[in-house]
Amino acid sequence: MRDDKPLWVPTRASIEASPMYAFMQKCNRDFGLSLAGYDDLHAFSVADRERFWTSVWEFCGVKGERGTSALLNGDAMLDARFFPDATLNFAENLLSGEGVGDALIFRGEDKVADRWSWGRLRSLVSRLQQAFKAMGIGSGDRIAAMMPNMPETVACMLAAASVGAIWSSCSPDFGEQGVLDRFGQIEPKLFIACDAYWYGGKLQDVKGKVATVTKRLGAPCLVVHYAGDASAVVNETPGAKTLEDFIAPFEPRSVEFVRLPFSHPLYILFSSGTTGVPKCIVHSAGGTLLQHLKEHRLHCGIQPGEKLFYFTTCGWMMWNWLVSGLAAGATLCLFDGSPFAPDGNVLFDFAAAEKFAVFGTSAKYIDAVRKSGLTPRTSHDLSSLRLMTSTGSPLSPEGFTFVYEGIKEDVQLASISGGTDIVSCFVLGNPLQPVWRGEIQGAGLGLAMDVWDDEGKPVRQEKGELVCTKAFPSMPVMFWNDSDGAKYKAAYFERFDNVWCHGDFAEWTEHGGIVIHGRSDATLNPGGVRIGTAEIYNQVEQMGEVAEALCIGQEWDDDVRVVLFVRLAPGAALTDELVKAIKNRIRTGASPRHVPAKIIAVSDIPRTKSGKIVELAVREVVHGRAVKNKEALANPEALELFAGLAELRV
Fold this sequence. Notes:
Elements: H1 12-17, H2 19-31, H3 38-47, H4 49-59, E1 64-65, E2 71-72, E3 81-82, E4 87-88, H5 90-94, E5 102-108, E6 112-117, H6 118-134, E7 142-146, H7 151-162, E8 166-170, H8 176-186, E9 190-194, E10 196-199, E11 202-205, H9 207-217, E12 221-224, H10 230-236, E13 241-242, H11 243-247, E14 260-261, E15 265-270, E16 280-284, H12 285-299, E17 307-310, H13 317-323, E18 331-336, H14 346-354, E19 358-362, H15 363-372, H16 376-379, E20 387-391, H17 397-407, E21 412-415, E22 417-419, E23 424-428, E24 442-443, E25 449-452, E26 464-468, E27 478-479, H18 486-492, E28 500-508, E29 514-519, H19 533-540, E30 546-556, E31 559-568, H20 576-589, E32 598-601, H21 615-622
Helix pairs in contact: 3-4, 6-7, 8-9, 9-10, 15-17
């Protein structure tokens, strides 16, 4: 597929039918502007943030009292306050469906299928809200959940938000210490857990883990039935109740919504924590709602009643992002378990059966589908699919090509990037511009995103730090247990004064798009030249012999040398010929500076629960330094494969 032509170009009709186009026309009418395209709209959104975010509030129909001011102290990143006198309730805005059609559609691998109407969802939220109030849960209290991505989890979160409680979640595959490292810091008033879950077609027992975590948290436990025996879990967990017993005293009634300040805490999310105890990142109700509405309604073009899907667990911020789709009137399609159980068709079966409009997933999943030989374009009816999104790691140019050749030709592919830090995206797609191979379409509206060199100067078509130069609504409220804000400031504001430094190594393209080259802290520096690890992965992972790769910089001879670890495809061996082929591929596809000094085969590569490879943890092991929080990993035993390697002593 040629790189001198875009992969997808919006038609004039599709542009004019998009909510983003309608929003642009509203701004033109309201403010006497003549915005003609995305670049104009983005320039307006960062130059006049007060009017832009007020317009988002109005256009998206936010329920609440907006107040008279849209932004105070706008020039100070840490002191800026959006809608300082506004009040709203997050759950009220998500429970806006009128009861027509489905609110939630659920699949638990091929084991469980369920559909929830808006009325059924409201009914459970009402009963949970009453039960929470009866046990004294209110504004500012924390509720922590170790749950699958299932409808009851959504209902519990909405009930928590309805009373002003702060929600935090992880997936049930976390180990005991991983759960405690997170929830132990925030001292929840209630712990919610499932009775068991499915993964890879196998039943996963959690009884012992639930009992241990409950005891050590010192909080009562609510056990939700999914795949096991909730009563058996309760019997092993003193003070626990099943969901049925918890809500039994209460009949459904109208849900009551406590309207709280715009900046009131809504979520506590956690950094991956592979180099220390996870940071507890607190996000506001108003900032999360407004940012997600902007991304869903404008960037994704979601219309009421459309089906929105993201493949995610409750331990990844994409779950929080997905759930906000209710505020746009979307029907959420939830999936829990392995995306290859019973086989690699399961998510596309779901997409075809339910007619997804938006299919969100990870770059790793797209690559896995490509390597599996599946071609959903020919095997599934994806005629309703208009937008596919990818995140978690940079999507390779070959991944872009596969989406159009193997999944669907006439689809907008939006590679997106942001993170837990902002519970949203800095860069993502938009329906007004073309999609170019290997490129994210551009910066998000309202975000003064740029790429700077080490001296703090903007650069074009040159790699540098991804920064944001003006405050935006979904910046964290604070870090939990960081009373003086020192950890928060150190995380984002130490590099450049009064400028958010995100920690991504990025580059503007000639088309005005963005390429993410990996995390800045994982950037390689051989000979003092900065190299993004994604540039190496984009080459080597396209080779049939290589299933997956991980790259680090090893301190060597007063410099840094590039070391590449490869997990080989079944039947492949790391012969001298393959080593030579890998180096040639990297040399010609990237540059001679990218060629690794060492290539080593390993049987597994460590990753976080959300599927991200952990370059920093491997780098620590290679250098004989301790990895402080292995509980953050899905497969911590894989780290042992990188310790004391003889190949790295020469």
